[in-house]
Request: fold
Amino acid sequence: MLLLMCLPATFAQAQTAQAQAVQVQAPSPALASIPSAPASAPQPSAAELDPEPHPVPGSISGTVTSPDGSVYEGAHITLQSKASATNPATALTAITDNDGRFHFPVVPAGPFELTVSAAGFASQTISSLLHPSESLETKPLVLLFASATSQVEVTASQTEIATEQLHIEEEQRVFGVIPNFYVVYTPNAVPLSPRQKFHLAWRSEIDPFTIAASAASAGIEQAQNTFSGYGQGAQGYFKRFGANYADSFIGNMLGGAAFPAVFKQDPRYFYNGKGTIRHRALYAIANAVICKGDNGHWQFNYSGLLGSMAAGGISYTYYPASNRDGADLFVENTFIGIGGSAIGNLFQEFVVRKLTPHLPNYTTKP
Reply:
């Protein structure tokens, strides 16, 4: 009886234990959804990670020179490579040493740009290509002056500009030989200072051609026995030569320097080159008795007239007494000076410029 009562309880416990065993053995849905771990894959190589290996870098060196060809110390060099093009902060910089040299020891291979700059010079850039492991030596980089010529001319003094223009005039020679210093081809030329007027007169009178012209004129007078009071022979020739050169020297120093300085007038002939032949001829003849003042206005040529008169009066002291003929020599020399100026101006206006080589290509006034 007791045994029969225990059987149902024992049977129930067995079913409970069996159910728990089944529950433990059954896999949970979560665990069933986890896939099995794959087999370990091989690691990629360095070549596979970076299929384009970086080329071996090279180096760039060079020299910077000034416009006169001497090496330049202290120039700034900036190197922009392919890598620094996207990141300017990585650009390389250098400064030339006392030999004008610069050197970039490690530069990525590929295209690059070099920019050189220095105080007072224009910056310039060159482009090229650096090959892997190449030691590139660039061509010498020549510094160029900054384009500030017009600014220098504007700020230069009148005397400095006149000096430059005067230097050009002193190079003017007909056929490359005969001095042609007293002609202005520069439009709107700056007036000369008193010192420059004396310089131009002196430079003209000590020119070898001026002395040779007086010597030739004395020879002609000797042959024709002009101013017979001088006589013949070497003594007569040198007296004629002295008189000819004195006429030129005194007339030019007074009419081309002293009086122009006093009256503030310009002793030079200002080439016109425009208009009809008649207009230009009248302009040239009129310039024997008129001139341009230092203020830029046309004036009566007191300087030239007084210079001719003074030269004629002084000639009384060295011409033979037998050939003075009272006031005739004075009047003759005065008008010869004026007439000679008119004829000379006509030649200047129509002929001389074509015979003067190496003239700058000036644009003449309309």
In short: Residues 233-263 form the longest helix (31 residues). The two ends are 154 Å apart (CA to CA).
